[in-house]
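Consider the tokenized backbone below.
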């Protein structure tokens, strides 16, 4: 199973990806997590990325692609993957198509978890209390949503044109959303 998960910040992508990882026994690859890992390791790249991330902006395409390429080269990704947080714009969508073509592992499904922007702000406020992410402050969240709408939403169209896009409703319980995703994948 080679799956790309799409959705606004706070749409529940990460939560659903973790459940899908268990269900299909394939890695959950989150570029946000890879970047946060680099920050925790205090690498040069991580320190530079933190400045951009804390403002809610997107990290340089080539840097994120490089991290993703390394991650996809690891043995566990040979059986498939759930991509969460990449691609974030149309340039990355093209980069990803090329990369996956090169390694002969094209994406099979792209799933958009659709949520109301109003709901997203409330969900992220809750996450901020639990996880303490420095980019989950109200002001930064608003910027991240704006960037999502401008840069990432067009990626949905990209996958529609590739005929692999499905949309599921992201409202309701975690289990309900998971059930909707599994129904799409098992169809
Ligand atoms: P996320 O955990 O997916 O919400 O990502 C957190 C932050 O990491 C984003 O707001 C960006 O600053 C950065 N980031 C994650 N994935 C990407 C990506 N594919 N391209 C650029 N920046 C990214």
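A designed sequence for it:
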């Amino acid at each position: 199973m080679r799956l790309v998960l799409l959705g606004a910040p706070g749409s529940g992508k990460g939560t659903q990806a973790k459940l899908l990882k268990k269900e299909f026994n394939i890695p959950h690859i989150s570029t946000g997590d890879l970047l946060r890992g680099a920050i925790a390791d205090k690498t040069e790249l991580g320190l530079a990325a933190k400045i951009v991330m804390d403002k809610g902006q997107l990290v340089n395409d080539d840097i994120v692609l490089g991290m993703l390429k390394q991650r996809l080269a690891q043995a566990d990704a040979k059986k498939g993957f759930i991509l969460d947080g990449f691609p974030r714009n149309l340039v990355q969508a093209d980069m990803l198509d090329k990369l996956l073509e090169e390694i002969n592992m094209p994406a099979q499904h792209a799933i958009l978890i659709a949520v109301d922007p109003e709901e997203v702000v409330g969900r992220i406020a809750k996450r901020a209390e639990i996880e303490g992410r420095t980019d989950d402050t109200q002001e930064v969240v608003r910027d991240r949503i704006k960037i999502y709408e401008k840069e990432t939403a067009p990626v949905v169209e990209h996958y529609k044109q590739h005929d692999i896009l499905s949309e599921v409703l992201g409202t309701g319980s975690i289990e309900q959303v998971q059930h909707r995703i599994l129904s799409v994948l098992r169809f």
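Residues 2-27+74-185 form a domain with the Rossmann fold fold (CATH 3.40.50.300).
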